Amino acid sequence: MAHSTSPIKEIGIDLETFSDVDLKKCGVYRYAESPAFEILLFGYSVNNGPVSVVDITSGEEVPNEILSALADDSITKWAYNASFERVCLSIWLRRNHPEYFSSYSIQGDTVGDYLDPSAWKCSRIWGAYLGLPLSLEGIGAVLQLSDQKMQEGKDLIRYFCTPCKPTKANGGRTRNLPEHAPEKWRTFKNYNQRDVEVELRVKERLASYPVPDFIWDEYHLDQEINDRGIGVDMQLVCNAIDIDANTKNSLLTKMQAKTGLGNPNSVSQMKEWLSDNGIETESLDKKAVKAIIPEADDHVSEVLQYRQQLAKSSVSKYKAMQNMVCADGRARGCFMFYGANRSGRWAGRGIQLQNLPQNHMDDLSEARDLVHDGNFEALDLLYENVPNVLSELIRTAFVPKPGYKYIVADFSAIEARVLSFLAREEWRIEVFRDGKDIYCASASQMFKVPVEKHGINSHLRQKGKIAELALGYGGSVGALKAMGALEMGLEEDELQPLVDSWRAANPNITSFWWAVDAAVKKAITGKTTTETHGLEFRFQSGMLFITLPSGRCLSYVKPRMGLNKFGSESVTYEGTQAGKWTRIESYGPKFVENITQAISRDILAYAMQTLSHCFIVGHVHDELIIEASPNVSLDAICEQMGRTPPWIEGLLLRADGYECPFYQKQ
Fold first, then answer.
1. Nearest Cα to 495, choosing from 475, 473, 512, 513?
2. Which helix (DSSP H) or strand (DSSP E) does residue 461 occupy?
3. H-type helices in 526-659, by residue range?
C-alpha cells in the first residue's frame, strides 16, 4: 500500500460495488442507499502514481490518509463518471467511517447525505467536452491507448456485483463471493486496477485540452441539483400504476366482448378481424390506426379507439419514478451533465424530465385528486380516456416539500432570439424588443399580412410557428413534414412555398448558415483559425474547435473534407450517432444549429449559476424548476433569469414563469 510521502494533491478512484438494486433502472442514489450496498474493491492512485487496490471484501482497510482525503475539499478526487464514486463513497463513509464524512448542506436543503461535489472532477466530462465517446471503453479505443479497459469486466461485474439466482449447483446462494471463484476474483482485482490505469492514461492524453474552470463550476452545480433531488408524490404514483392496470383490464374485456377475439392485443388477430370487417391494413401502429378511425363504421371505430388507449404507455414514467425515488421521497440523479455530445446540453436519466407529456386538461387539479385518492370508478365515469388522463398527470407527480411551492420559469423563444442575434436579423430583433410574438411576426413577414395570436389572421400563426421550428437550421420540406405539418392541416403543395417565403423573410439567417459553412471549411482545409459573426473556428491537432461567446468550445474530432451523397463537398468528423462511434457529415446550417443550441444551453447554465442560492430541483431545455418558500417572488426570479450574460451583451432575453403546488405546464 506504500505510496509517495509527498502531500496528496489529487486521487484517482475506481470502485467495484455490490447492491441488490438494479443500477441501470434505479440510478446510483437508490442503488447505494440499499442496506445491501457495499464497496468490494477500492482502486486508487495518489498524485497520478502507481495504482493500489484495497480488497475490502477480504478484510483489507482503506488507509486513513485516503479516508480523510475523501472529505478534504482541498484535494481533487478524479473518477470516470465521478458521480457514481462520489455518491457510493458518501453512503459508505457515513455507514462505516462517519468520523471522516462531512457534507455541504445548508439548512432546509436536501443534499446533506453526500460529499461536496466541488472537490470532484470527472474524466468522462472531460472526454465529452472534447466530443469523445461517453464510455471508458469507447474513449480508450478512440484515443488508441496502450492500456485498454479489460473485456472480461462485464462478466465479472455480473458475477460479483449483482445478486445471483439460487440453484442446486451453487448451494442455493444468492450472491457470489471471492471464495466461490478465487481465480475470477484475482482477475476482478486486476480489472479494477486496470480501470484506474486507463483513467490516468485518458487524463494524460487530454492534458493539452483542459476543461475551463467555469465548466467545472457548472458540473458541480449540476451535481448539487442531482443530490438535492425532486420530490415525488408516491401515493399518486402507486395509485396511477394500479388505475392503469384496472383500465387496461377493463379495456381488454370490452374489446373481447366487441370482437370475440381471445387476444385483441395480437396484431395478427386484430388484422384478421379488421379484414373480416372490410378494412385491410399493413400496419397497426399509432399513425395507421389514427388514419383508419374516421373512415371506419362506429363499431370498428370504437374498437380501434380502445386499442389506441390500450397501447398508450402512460405508466412507464410512473414506474421510473418508483424505481428512482429514495427513502426520503425524492428522486435523485435525473440529469446528466454534458449528455448531448454536440451542444453540451444536459440529458435526462431514468425518469427523463426532458420528454414528459404536456398537460392540457382544464380540470387538472380535480383529476389529480381522483388519482391521488385512488378513485377508479369516478375516473372511469368522468373521463372517456383514462390512460390519457394518467399521461397528462405525470408532471403533477413532482411535488415540493411541505410548506414550499414550485416556481417554474423559462426563457421565451430562446433559440429564435439567439439565432436572430447571431445572424443580425434586425426585424426579428425588433419583434423581441417590442415584446411581440415571434410566430405571429414570422407569419406576418412571410405572408405580408398582419397576424395576431387571437385576432386577425390568427390561423396563420400555426404556419409561422411550424416554419420557425423547422426551418431555422436549413430545414426544408422534409423538416416541415417531420414537425407534423401535414397533420396540422397544411397541404403538400404549400410546403415548398413556405420554405421559400421563410428564407426570403430571413436573408441574414440564410447568409449566416453559409458564412459558417465557409469558415468551417477554410479552418479545416487551411489548418488555420477563421472567424465570422463573432465566432471563432480553429483547427488544432486534428480537432475543430468552435469558440462560443461564453468562452466554451464545441469540439469536433478528426474533421476532414469529403463528398456527400449529392456529390458536393462537405465536412465530416467522428462522433457518436445512434449510440455508435462513426463518421458524421455536417454543413453550415447544422453547425449553426449546434452553435445556437449550445449558446442557449450556456445562457441557461448562467441563469442556474445566478440562481444557485435558490433550491433548483430540475431543469428542462430552457426551463428551471425551483422549490421555493412562500415568500419568494416569482417576478424577482424571472427578472434575475432574464438578465443577459456579460459575454453576449445586446442579446434580448425574457423569462416568464408561474407558481404551482405541483409541477405542470401552464
1. 475
2. helix 461-471
3. 588-610, 634-641
Burial profile 25-58: b = 16 or more Cβ within 10 angstroms, e = fewer: ebbbbbbbbeeebbbbbbbbbbeeeebbbbbbbe
Residue 220: CB atoms within 10 A of its CB come to 18
> What is the bridge-based pairing of β-strands 335-336 and 347-348?
antiparallel
Range in 53-62, 77-86, 178-187, 276-285 the model is least confident about: 276-285
* Collapsed DSSP state (helix, strand, coil) of residue 512: helix
Distance CA(54)–CA(62), nearest Å, equals: 6
Strands 76-79 and 120-122 come out as parallel
- The span from the CA of 195 to the CA of 631, in Å, is 49
Name the phi and psi angles at 657, rounded to 5.
-160, -175
Which residue carries 465479472 as its cell?
156
Angle between helices 213-228 and 82-96 (to 10 degrees): 50
Contacts of 219 (CB under 8 A, 6+ apart): 117, 121, 122, 125, 337, 338
In this predicted structure, the answer to whether residue 149 has a pLDDT above a threshold of 80 is no
Q: What is the pLDDT of residue 288?
A: 85
Helices (H), 97-233: 123-129, 136-142, 153-161, 182-206, 213-228
Label residues 626-661 b or e (16+ Cβ within 10 Å = b): bbbeeebebeebbeebbeebeebeebbbbbebebbe
Q: In Å, how far are 221, 273, 627 from 108, measured between CA atoms?
A: 17, 60, 11
Of 404, 397, 400, nearest to 372 by C-alpha is: 397
98-118 residue pLDDT tens: 999 999 988 889 999 999 999
Residue type, 564: N
Cα–Cα distance, 269 to 563 (Å, whole number): 48
What is the CB-side half-sphere exposure of residue 317 using CA atoms within 13 A?
Answer: 24
How far apart CA 246 and CA 252 sit, in angstroms, is: 10
| pLDDT tens digits, one per residue of 216-235 | 999 999 999 999 999 999 99
pLDDT, residue 483, reads 85
How deeply is 146 buried, as exposed, middle or buried, from its count of CB atoms within 10 A (0-12, 13-18, 19+)?
exposed
Q: Which of 338, 333, 334, 335 is nearest to 211 (CA)?
A: 338
How many residues would you count in the chain?
666
pLDDT at 2: 47
Q: How many C-beta neighbours within 10 Å does residue 318 have?
A: 25
Of 413, 412, 404, 411, give the one whose Cα is nearest residue 626.
Answer: 404
pLDDT digits (tens, 9 = 90+) for 302-355: 889 888 888 877 789 999 999 999 999 999 999 999 998 889 999 999 999 998
Q: Answer yes or no: are the C-beta atoms of 556 and 343 closer than 8 Å.
A: no
The answer to whether the CB of 242 falls within 8 A of the CB of 355 is no
- Reference 666, options 415, 462, 365, 386; nearest CA is 365
- Report the relative pairing of strands 10-18 and 76-79 from DSSP bridges: parallel
Triad 336, 208, 560: Cα angle to 5°: 80
The burial of 542, by beta-carbon neighbours within 10 Å (0-12 exposed, 13-18 middle, 19 or more buried), is given as exposed
Locate 306 and state its grid cell. 380502445
